[in-house]
Amino acid sequence: MKVLMVCLGNICRSPLAEGILREKARRAGLHWEIDSAGTNGYHTGEAPHHLSQKVARLNGVDISTQRARRFTADDFQHFEKIYAMAGDVIDDMRRIAGKKFDPNKVDLLMNEVHPGKDQDVPDPWYGPEPGYHEVYKMIDVAANRIIAKYGQPGAGGSTQGQTSGFTPQKSHEQK
Length: 175
Ligand code: 4NP
Fold this sequence. Notes:
Distance between the termini: 26 Å
Bound molecules: 4-nitrophenyl phosphate
Strand order of the largest sheet: 2-1-3-4
């Protein structure tokens, strides 16, 4: 399965979502392609925010080599599933993608945890470190749901190389 995680700057939330889901997919033996992007280009080429890197590292996930890039309309052609971190991000994606916007591929990430609730992953950019830990926990739960939903044989995601008996782990079990 090809999954894209999208936020505004691609330096705080979506790099975490990319790194967390990639690590869980790797542990599950799933050969998924996972990427992230931002709807504004303010931080293109930059590494993730140091606090996103820190909370990831504390949970055994290395996102230090990821680099920010801008979301493009062509992402709708390449990716099968596109998760937005918040509603304003979907508004931006609709504007950027124009006719290529495909509502069947897009959802808010937290709708995998609370379907239909349209909950945002809050933007930690303006706040202190605890906000980044909160964001990590929310994304971690959502990533477990994605693996459980699409990582099973016949679920629509590629299961090539999947190991048997995988149970999605909670963040405190990953250390
Ligand atoms: P993110 O956070 O969307 O989670 O990467 C932000 C980072 C930077 C900006 C906005 C949000 N910014 O406007 O620079």
